[in-house]
Design goal:
five-stranded mixed β-barrel; flavoprotein; flavin adenine dinucleotide binding; FAD/NAD-linked_Rdtase_dimer_sf; Enolase-like, domain 1; 474 residues; FAD; NAD
């Protein structure tokens, strides 16, 4: 191993989060290196956000078209699965990262391909794919941005079954005739939506009482209703106790003693941090653990180690990880420049406050479910004095124009003491593009009497904002 190469910042993991940490460091005049063991661009680009939305976009577009008079007759047939999969392949750049590598070069970040491990304070070693080992040293910061992997249940023989995880579900090159989906969260409902529309017979197995348990209850209810109408079967309150594969057919045994057979089984049962083999033990941390951080994303007890994105378990969403990266990059630069006191108070320049107060999310099902901030239950649990204001989105003129028989619901959670919004949820066709307005209202803590003067254009679905405020005012 040669002498260590020194940079101001060394980043482990070149997904969107790591890329943004490195970019913010370079923008501040710091030198940066990034280490990646797979593809530059990470999970989001090749096995999550981009391929899943490429699969779902034709599904949603067809569903919308079928609700428009004069158009529904033209889109009555099945989707062209081969064309959808080819479109998905284009959006993953056919699992090649040349474009992302070119971007890193353009911003002046050095790329090291191989497995990166922390080797002590401010030290990183890279085991290259060619067998070489490179030592890197960071003057100011090492940022762990290794993300998460699918968490599989502890079922005997599961590895022999070769189950789908989110990676296989978004990268599959054929449509299975029968698909079992285990789980009720975002990955489960999005992949059930996609593969059902592409021609699979889908059964969703939910251990809990319903879908999308981390959103307002009506979100999961409306999505479940639509999935059932589309032909999927939803079975709640059941668990898989055993799974086998014989002659290509998967058999799942449930805790009620029944069995189900399918061509593929997808386990969408949570995520685990990719921290099991990155050298955490060399700095007194537990391999395989989530990494707790302060508001500037610095690992607790360290003055040089940062954990940004999914690995810190604050908000497991790509856009939140990129937000954290911008905050962490600013904090790293400020500390490198000797700034004596960082702005780590609530909503400060070096604080990732939105991770707690204003997280936006869109579930790209039919109907879409979108939220920003806290649910009613979360707000109540946090001790806020709140009121939920609900509105049937079918009562908005723009919704009726968007789709015949529009079905949806909106809720805003009002902090009664401050008269600001703590959370907003929309469910319905096309609501994904509404959510940034809610995010701005929540993050900006805009008083409701000022929101009253934010006039929605008529006739758009966004007029639901006026209806919610009218309902609140009475």
């Amino acid at each position: 191993m040669t002498d260590a190469k020194t940079y101001d910042v060394v980043v482990i993991g070149a997904g969107p989060v790591g890329e943004n940490v490195a970019d913010r460091a370079r923008a501040a005049g710091l030198s940066a290196a990034i280490v990646e063991s797979e593809l530059v661009g990470g999970e989001c680009s090749y096995w999550a956000c981009m391929p899943s939305k490429a699969l779902l976009r034709p599904v949603i577009a067809r569903a919308d078209a079928r609700r428009v008079p004069g158009l529904r007759q033209s889109v009555g047939g099945p989707l062209d699965a081969a064309a959808v999969l080819a479109h998905r392949d284009d959006y993953t750049s056919h699992w090649k990262d040349d474009g992302q590598v070119g971007w890193l070069e353009g911003v002046g970040v050095d790329l090291y391909r191989g497995h990166g491990r922390v080797a002590g304070p401010r030290q990183v070693t890279v085991a290259g794919t060619d067998g070489t080992e490179t030592a890197l040293r960071a003057r100011h910061a090492v940022a762990v941005c290794t993300g998460t992997r699918a968490a599989l249940p502890d079922l005997p023989g599961l590895a022999d079954v070769k189950p789908w995880t989110s990676r296989e579900a978004t990268a599959a090159d054929r449509v299975p005739d029968r698909l079992l989906v285990v789980g009720g969260g975002v990955v489960a409902v999005e992949m059930a939506t996609a593969w059902q529309a592409l021609g699979s017979s889908v059964t969703v197995l939910v251990r809990g009482g319903g879908l999308l348990p981390r959103m307002e209850p009506f979100a999961g209810e409306l999505v479940q209703e639509a999935l059932t109408e589309a032909g999927a079967e939803i079975r709640s309150g059941v668990s898989v106790t055993a799974v086998t594969r014989e002659n290509g057919t998967v058999t799942a045994t449930l805790d009620d003693g029944s069995t189900l057979r399918a061509d593929e089984i997808l386990f969408a049962t949570g995520r685990a941090p990719r921290t099991d083999d990155i050298g955490l033990e060399t700095v007194g941390l537990e391999p395989g653990s989530w990494l707790p951080v302060d508001e500037s994303l610095r690992v607790a007890g360290s003055d040089w180690l940062y954990a940004v994105g999914d690995v810190n378990h604050r908000a497991l969403l790509t856009h939140q990880g990129k937000y954290q990266a911008r905050v962490a990059g600013a904090a790293i630069a400020a500390r490198a420049q000797g700034v004596p006191l960082l702005e780590t108070d609530r909503w400060g320049a070096h604080a990732a406050t939105a991770d707690h107060a204003a997280v936006p999310q869109v579930v790209f099902t039919d109907p879409e479910a979108a939220s920003a901030g806290l649910t009613l239950a979360e707000a109540e649990a946090a001790g806020h004095r709140v009121r939920a204001v609900d509105y049937d989105m079918a009562g908005v003129a723009g919704a009726g124009l968007y789709a015949d028989g529009y079905r949806g619901r909106a809720r805003m959670v009002v902090d009664l003491d401050r008269e600001i919004l703590l959370g907003v949820t929309f469910v319905g066709p096309g609501v994904g593009e509404l959510i940034h307005s809610a995010t701005m209202a929540v993050a900006g803590e805009i008083p409701l009497d000022r929101l009253w003067h934010a006039v929605p254009a008529y006739p758009t679905i966004s007029e639901v904002w006026l209806r919610l405020l009218e309902t609140y005012r009475g």
